[in-house]
Amino acid sequence: MSRRALAALVPTCLVAGVVLMIGFETPLTRALGVACLFAFVAGGLFLIVDPVLLSDEADPDVDRFAHGPISTRPRHRQEGPGCPRS
Fold it and tell me: Quick check: 21 and 30 in contact, CB under 8 A?
C-alpha cells in the first residue's frame, strides 16, 4: 500500500470508528468501531515511522542512533549551590 493511500485511509478509519462508537449502541457496531480505531492507530504508526527502519535493506554500516564518539575522559564536576566543592 502506498503512503498516499495510507494517508487517506487513516483519517477515514478515525471518522468511521468515532461514528460507529458514538452513533450506534449495538455490540456489533461497537466492535467495528474499536477495529476501525485500532486500524487508525496502526496506520498512523506506519505513517510516522521512518521507512528506512522498516526496510530489510538498511545500511548495516550506518548507525542512525549514534551520537558521535564517546569520551573516555571524566566529566567536569558542576559548581554551584548544593554541589560539593573540592
Answer: yes
3-state secondary structure of 8: helix
59 has pLDDT over 80: no
Q: Provide the CA 48 distance to its chain's centre, in angstroms.
A: 6
How far is it, in rounded angstroms, from Cα 34 to Cα 40? 10
Cβ(31)–Cβ(65) under 8 Å? no
Q: ∠49-54-33 over CA atoms, to 5°? A: 55
Residues in contact with 82: Cβ distance below 8 Å, sequence separation at least 6, in sequence order? none
Q: Mean pLDDT across the stretch 52-73?
A: 60
Residue closest to 6 by CA, chosen among 43, 35, 39, 45 = 43
Q: Give the DSSP letter of residue 84.
A: P
pTM of the shown model: 0.58
